[in-house]
């Protein structure tokens, strides 16, 4: 008498019982920071997901931390929130200890590096970007990997659709692969600072395009714009499918 | 339940086992010494030899046929399956067609009751799926073999 | 050996053990529904196909014709749903020619389940089969391992829960053709909005007893993209010409002809 092996019977014998808890998850979303001459923007979509489900269509993830610094930690939302809280707390203490001295972008960046590296062997599962004005009033964007390696950049995309947006930014912000017409590729198109309006157009197109092709991006786009006058917020709806 | 080929298939296949042979010090680098890839231990012995479906699919028709003949024997007696097998044998012998390769002829299909159905065997004849393994199976070789050239 | 080839199994396993793993097939992380109404049956589907988190096709067709009046909506591995429906479609036509009768939905279902059972779920096709034949209108579903269901309303795919929520609350016996189409489209939209594996448009196919099937591609398009903020047209010459070579494929001779004459 033969029996047909069922999935259950083979599983019962061959699979050892594992007790493993996975502390991380991925909540999707994408963020994008661009520095201009006298301003900086940091934008993020407002969709919050796990796997194929939408948890919220409006869950902001770009925040004004004070001192003209905006910050977003994209990836595992709980870690992002924890990191943001810790940074804000650290900023409070900085003000308390230093007679309300304004925290510079360079100092903020170094502080975040330490917050991240301090958890080197149980990292915050996030791609972090901060944006603001440096001590000369020039726009600046700093981006961090999950364990604290960071760099000041002109523009940077992070999160789920970073690989979709970054090439677009290289081409449209830093004019990569563009040459001056008529020079037969001898002369690169000179880079210039974009205006706020131009940058917002680029950001909106980057996000509508990412929404078209990435399932974890959509619902809404929130842009925080830092100028010498302070931080301004703009919201644009994105496709919800 | 021997209508379908008994097999040792698993219904779930993992394609990423064998990842434990890595150096601890440098996790991303394969440890050649411990893995002995291409060394003393032949690679083929470290891998599964067949797709879990292969034996089932390849043995499918033969098993079905055997079962059918068995039923004929039980219902009509031994003469029935014998007659059918003889008819098939006759068709297979007389119907020499070097172009047909592995595919069945119409006569054969009628005798097997397959003449109004298709399966992947009809869509993908052996010659189109083989990876250069049966080059000796072409028309010329078949005719030369038939005429003993 | 003819048929689906296993030739490269060992090689692929070796490659998989040495690298990141095997290439992923395009899957239609889908919402599909089917429901019966007064005088017929219909099926509907969304039009997004994905490769992991990336949208591979924004407007793909998931409704397949098996026979002129038997249609089928597919979820699962895109290639498998396509291949299996085409093969069974051919078999149904051959069978119909051989018997001289109209193809039947039960025949289609039996062929599908026998074929899928043979391949033990390795063909990842999850189908909703619907159609009209001389015995009336029918609605059934087949799972990849070969099990089947019959029902008045069915949904399948990653968005099946969202769609079923709508069907469970709104389906009733004796729906009219128009009511049924709207209900099916609403169910698919529930999947489009709430399931990330589904998106874009709604396709519908209506089969009424005694009539030809009506395939309504992009019956609803609730996801038209807004126009871009600016044009990304490059000035001519922005891309450098590194090398230029002209190959003369044929000899060109010019000759003046007086056309006024």
Explain what you see.
The complex is a heterotrimer of chains A (241), B (149) and C (261). Chain A is an alpha+beta fold and 241 residues long. Chain A has helices spanning 7-14, 77-97, 105-117, 162-172, 196-213; strands spanning 30-35, 40-45, 48-50, 53-56, 63-64, 69-75, 126-133, 139-144, 150-153, 155-159, 220-227, 230-237. In chain A, strand 7 and strand 8 (139-144) form a beta hairpin. In chain A, helix 2 packs across helix 3 and helix 4 (162-172) packs antiparallel against helix 5. Chain A is globular and about 65 Å long. Mean pLDDT of chain A is 93; it is low at 1-6 and 8-13. Chain B is mainly α and 149 residues long. Chain C contains 5 helices and 13 strands. Helix content of chain C is 29%, strand content 28%. In chain C, a hairpin with a 2-residue loop joins strand 2 (32-37) and strand 3. Chain C has helices at 9-18, 78-99, 105-118, 160-170, 177-194; strands at residues 27-28, 32-37, 40-46, 49-51, 54-57, 63-67, 70-77, 125-133, 136-142, 148-150, 153-156, 202-208, 214-220. Chain C is α+β, with helices and mostly antiparallel strands and 261 residues long. In chain C, the strands form 3 sheets. In chain C, strands 1, 6, 7, 8, 9 and 10 form a 6-stranded antiparallel beta sheet that branches.
List the helices and strands and how they pair.
The complex is a heterotrimer of chains A (241), B (149) and C (261).
Chain A: H1 7-14, E1 30-35, E2 40-45, E3 48-50, E4 53-56, E5 63-64, E6 69-75, H2 77-97, H3 105-117, E7 126-133, E8 139-144, E9 150-153, E10 155-159, H4 162-172, H5 196-213, E11 220-227, E12 230-237
Antiparallel strand pairs in A: 1-2, 1-10, 2-11, 3-4, 5-6, 6-7, 7-8, 8-9, 11-12
Helix pairs in contact in A: 2-3, 4-5
Chain B: H1 32-35, H2 54-58, H3 60-76, H4 79-94, H5 106-112, H6 120-123, H7 126-129, H8 139-146
Helix pairs in contact in B: 4-5
Chain C: H1 9-18, E1 27-28, E2 32-37, E3 40-46, E4 49-51, E5 54-57, E6 63-67, E7 70-77, H2 78-99, H3 105-118, E8 125-133, E9 136-142, E10 148-150, E11 153-156, H4 160-170, H5 177-194, E12 202-208, E13 214-220
Antiparallel strand pairs in C: 1-7, 2-3, 2-11, 3-12, 4-5, 6-7, 7-8, 8-9, 9-10, 12-13
């Amino acid at each position: 008498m033969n029996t047909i092996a069922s999935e259950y019977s083979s599983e019962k014998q061959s699979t050892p019982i594992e007790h493993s808890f996975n502390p991380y998850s991925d909540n999707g979303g994408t963020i994008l920071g661009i520095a201009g001459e006298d301003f900086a923007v940091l934008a993020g979509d407002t969709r919050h997901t796990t796997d194929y489900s939408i948890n919220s269509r409006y869950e902001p993830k770009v925040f004004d931390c004070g001192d003209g610094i905006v910050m977003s930690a994209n990836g595992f939302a709980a870690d992002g929130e924890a990191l943001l809280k810790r940074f804000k707390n650290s900023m409070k203490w900085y003000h308390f200890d230093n007679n309300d001295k304004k925290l510079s972008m360079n100092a903020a960046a170094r502080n975040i590096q330490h917050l991240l590296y301090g958890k080197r062997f149980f990292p915050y599962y996030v791609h972090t970007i901060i944006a603001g004005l440096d001590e000369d009033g020039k726009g600046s964007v700093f981006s961090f990997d999950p364990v604290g390696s960071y760099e000041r950049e002109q523009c940077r995309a992070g999160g789920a659709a970073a690989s979709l947006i970054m090439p677009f930014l290289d081409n449209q912000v830093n004019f990569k692969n563009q040459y001056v017409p008529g020079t037969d590729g001898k002369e690169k198109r000179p880079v210039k600072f974009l205006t706020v309006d131009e940058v917002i157009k680029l950001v909106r197109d980057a996000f509508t395009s990412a929404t078209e092709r990435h399932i974890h991006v959509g619902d809404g786009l929130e842009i925080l714009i830092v100028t010498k006058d302070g931080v301004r917020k703009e919201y644009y709806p994105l496709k919800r499918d | 339940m021997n209508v379908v080929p008994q097999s040792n298939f698993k219904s779930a296949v993992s394609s990423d086992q064998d990842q434990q042979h890595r150096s601890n010090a440098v996790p991303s680098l394969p440890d050649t010494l411990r893995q002995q890839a291409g060394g003393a231990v032949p690679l083929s012995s470290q891998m599964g030899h067949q797709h879990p479906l292969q034996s089932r699919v390849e043995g499918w028709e033969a098993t079905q046929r055997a079962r059918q003949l068995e039923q004929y024997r039980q219902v009509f007696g031994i003469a029935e399956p014998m007659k059918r097998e003889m008819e098939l044998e006759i068709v297979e012998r007389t119907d020499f067609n070097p172009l047909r390769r592995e595919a069945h002829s119409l006569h054969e299909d009628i005798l097997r009751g397959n003449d109004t159905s298709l399966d992947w065997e009809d869509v993908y004849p052996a010659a189109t799926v083989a990876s250069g393994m049966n080059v000796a199976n072409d028309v010329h070789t078949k005719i030369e073999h038939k005429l003993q050239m | 050996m003819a048929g689906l080839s296993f030739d490269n199994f060992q090689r692929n396993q070796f490659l998989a053990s040495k690298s990141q793993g095997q290439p992923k097939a395009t899957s239609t992380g889908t919402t599909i529904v089917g429901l019966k109404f007064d005088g017929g049956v219909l099926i509907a589907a969304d039009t997004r196909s994905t490769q992991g988190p990336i949208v591979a096709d924004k407007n793909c067709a998931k409704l397949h014709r098996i026979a002129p009046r038997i249609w089928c909506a597919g979820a699962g591995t895109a290639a498998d749903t396509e291949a299996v429906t085409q093969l069974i479609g051919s078999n149904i036509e051959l069978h119909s020619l051989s018997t001289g009768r109209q193809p039947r939905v039960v025949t289609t279902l039996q062929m599908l389940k026998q074929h899928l059972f043979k391949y033990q779920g390795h063909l990842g096709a999850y189908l909703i089969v619907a159609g009209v034949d001389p015995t009336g209108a029918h609605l059934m579903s087949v799972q990849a391992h070969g099990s089947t269901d019959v029902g008045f309303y069915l949904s399948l795919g990653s968005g099946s829960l969202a769609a079923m929520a709508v069907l469970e609350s709104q389906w009733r016996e004796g729906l009219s053709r128009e009511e049924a189409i709207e209900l099916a489209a609403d169910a698919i939209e529930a999947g489009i909005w709430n399931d990330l594996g589904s998106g874009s448009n709604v396709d519908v196919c209506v089969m009424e007893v005694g009539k030809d099937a009506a395939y309504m591609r992009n019956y609803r398009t609730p996801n038209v993209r807004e126009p871009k903020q600016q044009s990304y047209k490059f000035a001519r010459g922005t891309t450098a010409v590194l090398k230029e070579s002209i190959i003369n494929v044929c000899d060109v001779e010019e000759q003046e002809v007086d056309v006024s004459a």
